[in-house]
Amino acid sequence: MRLLARILAMVIVAFGTAAGAAAAGRVALVIGNAQYQGVTQLANPVNDAEDIAAKLRGLGFTVVDGYDLGKREMERKIGEFSDQLEGAEAGILYYAGHGISVAGRNFIVPTDANLSAPARLKFESISIDDVVELMKASTPVNVLILDACRNNPFGRGPSVTTRGASEASSGLAVANSYSGAYTVYSAQDGAVALDGEGRNSPFAVALLKHLDTPGATVEVVMGRVKAEVEEATKDFQSPDAKGLLVQPFSFLPVEQLATRSASIESSSDDPESKSLAEISTLITERYLKPEPDNIEALTTELFTDPATSFGNRLSLAGMANIKAQWFAQFDRWQLRMTPNSLKASFLDAGTATVSFSLGYKYWPKKKSAPPLTGIAQITLGLVRQDGRWKIESEAAN
Questions:
Q1: DSSP letter at 372?
Q2: CA-derived radius of gyration, the chain
Q3: DSSP string, 5-59
Q4: Coil, strand or helix at 322
Q5: 32 closest CA partner among 265, 332, 255, 376
Q6: What is the spatial distance between Cα 386 and Cα 130, in angstroms, rounded to a whole number?
Q7: CA separation for the pair 248, 178 (Å, rounded)
Q8: Phi, psi of 175, deg, nearest 5
Q9: What whole-number percentage of the chain has pLDDT above 70?
Q10: Strand, coil or helix: what is 12?
């Protein structure tokens, strides 16, 4: 039991979802709220936000993200975003969740909001106007993407398939044009946006498909998203956009694509570069992406037999069992590799050591228990077996 307790205490940082390398100058705040307290909960905002955050990281953005946030947590994330924006060339806000429009002003709604009385609005929610002013003070190019035109869950007439709303109408005030920002709404003025029946909302599905179109300006991207959402929803939902940018903006500029291609081609004949690419894929696509139904299978695939886990030598079956027991305690988990933290050292062609910084957050199944959060430095010892890299040891500082 002591061995199990020790290993479980360390396995908290054993797996996670990876963040791509981020480049200074382009910063995004990504928030997804779904698990509202006392009002209609939503199925997909967290999924949407997680996938958008991953996409933006892959495009070189520095991403500040948060999921199922209360008011104070949202304010802290906005503060982190503000710090990152200083001197940036572009700022992006993506929000998925409940939204409200009152007297022409739009608000995004924290999960712990109590809006039983109109007077509570300014104390319980976040004004988009305030976030825009913060962005404009730091960056010349600002893009707002609001997948939050949903039915009002805080009054009568609740909806289970749409997100957020307006006191006076069914959706956000799309007529708002924030000076100095290009604003995208997932549905037209006064209308609602579908939450979707799969992993993502119809709007997020289209956005994820077109966001990384090489060289396409944000206006072109959103035009394609609009057409696809209208087709997918049979014109029930029609995204809209307002505002002008002072200069052209693309999520994936052509010059960035050319730089990436040149880097890949120049290193393609270097054996160490090839190995690093393989290891990076192993970590980002497998080790850092466990799912509730594949923990044991993933462990068996990735580790040698035996392997050392946080100072304890275990058989492959024992390793799989310990990790399965750990993850079984949680409803979900969110772990992120710190951008640019991955480092590798090759001892020979078949032996390597890699390390990276990992932030983690686990939500216990026991609802009264607080999430487990922290930051750890992960070190993996790797060996090449049967033409593949496998993990021989893992440790955390």
A1: E
A2: 22
A3: HHHHHHHTTS--B------TTEEEEEEE----SSS---SSHHHHHHHHHHHHHHT
A4: helix
A5: 332
A6: 56
A7: 17
A8: -65, -20
A9: 79
A10: coil
Backbone dihedral region for residue 311 (phi beyond 0: left; psi -120 to 50: alpha; all else: beta): left
Strands (E), the chain: 26-32, 62-67, 90-96, 99-102, 105-108, 126-127, 141-147, 165-166, 182-185, 240-242, 303-309, 312-314, 330-337, 343-348, 351-364, 372-385, 388-396
What are the backbone dihedrals phi and psi of residue 222, each rounded to the nearest 5 degrees, phi first? -70, -30
Greatest C-alpha distance within the chain: 67
Q: Is 320 left (phi over 0), alpha (psi -120 to 50) or beta?
A: alpha
Instruction: Kindly report, residue by residue over 317-336, the tens digit of the pLDDT.
Output: 999 999 999 999 999 988 77
243, amino acid identity: G
CA pair distance 112, 71, nearest whole angstrom: 7
pLDDT tens by residue, 153-202: 555 433 333 455 334 344 566 655 677 789 999 988 666 777 777 789 99
**CB-based contact 325:8 (threshold 8 Å):** yes
Report helix, strand or coil for 14: coil
Among candidate residues 171, 123, 169, the one with its CA nearest the CA of residue 146: 171
Concatenating the DSSP letter of every residue in 266-297 gives HTTT-HHHHHHHHHHHHIIIIIT---TTTHHH
* Sole residue written with tokens 């044991």: 296
And the tokens for 241? 């956009």
For the record, the structure tokens of 18 come out as 């990876």
SS (H, E, C) 107-166: EECCCCCCCCCHHHHHHHCEEHHHHHHHHHCCCCEEEEEEECCCCCCCCCCCCCCECCEE
Write phi, then psi, for 158 (nearest 5 degrees): -65, 155
Q: CA-CA distance, 88 to 137, in Å (whole number)?
A: 11
Q: Residues with Cβ < 8 Å from 359, sequence gap 6 or more? A: 335, 336, 338, 373, 374, 375
pLDDT tens for 208-262 read 999 988 888 899 999 999 999 999 999 889 999 988 888 889 998 865 544 444 4
- Give the other-Cβ count within 10 Å of 93's Cβ: 24
Across residues 44-59, what is the average pLDDT?
Answer: 91
The overall pTM is greater than 0.90 = no
